[in-house]
């Protein structure tokens, strides 16, 4: 992680649109209810998911590359730590990703360093809901 805790509020103020990598159709999963919470608090988002769904009314894309650039700048990631290498590869290939936010319980130091070397800010093992409640 190359972003200090003290920078989280500024990131959330700057990026009011973002992509949710792995936005689940299952309402019991954090990858579904965290985006709902953030949307209810003024953020706009779209998601990626391997299968089509319209749960929560979110626009879903198959890959990051398909996501409009204004949403791709900040990517909130819900993938297991062992899959973050693939996410970093996709983010670098898609281009335009400025922030990778790896949700609570997710970290992959080697992949995070690769993202950082590509100029991407990385937050790992942090929940957007928890951080939002601290600052807003």
From TrEMBL:
<dbReference type="InterPro" id="IPR003781">
    <property type="entry name" value="CoA-bd"/>
</dbReference>
<dbReference type="Pfam" id="PF13380">
    <property type="entry name" value="CoA_binding_2"/>
</dbReference>
<feature type="domain" description="CoA-binding">
    <location>
        <begin position="11"/>
        <end position="106"/>
    </location>
</feature>
<dbReference type="InterPro" id="IPR036291">
    <property type="entry name" value="NAD(P)-bd_dom_sf"/>
</dbReference>
<protein>
    <submittedName>
        <fullName>CoA-binding protein</fullName>
    </submittedName>
</protein>
């Amino acid at each position: 992680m190359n972003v200090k805790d003290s920078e989280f509020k500024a990131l959330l103020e700057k990026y009011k649109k973002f992509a949710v990598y792995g936005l689940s159709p299952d309402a019991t999963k954090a990858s579904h209810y965290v985006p709902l919470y953030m949307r209810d608090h003024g953020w706009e988002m779209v998601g990626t998911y391997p299968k089509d769904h319209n749960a929560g009314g979110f626009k879903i894309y198959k890959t990051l590359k398909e996501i409009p650039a204004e949403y791709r700048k900040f990517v909130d990631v819900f993938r297991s730590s062992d899959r973050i290498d693939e996410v970093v590869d996709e983010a670098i290939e898609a281009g335009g990703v400025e922030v990778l936010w790896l949700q609570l319980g997710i970290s992959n130091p080697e992949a995070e360093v690769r993202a950082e070397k590509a100029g991407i800010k990385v937050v790992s093992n942090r929940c957007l809901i928890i951080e939002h409640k601290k600052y807003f």
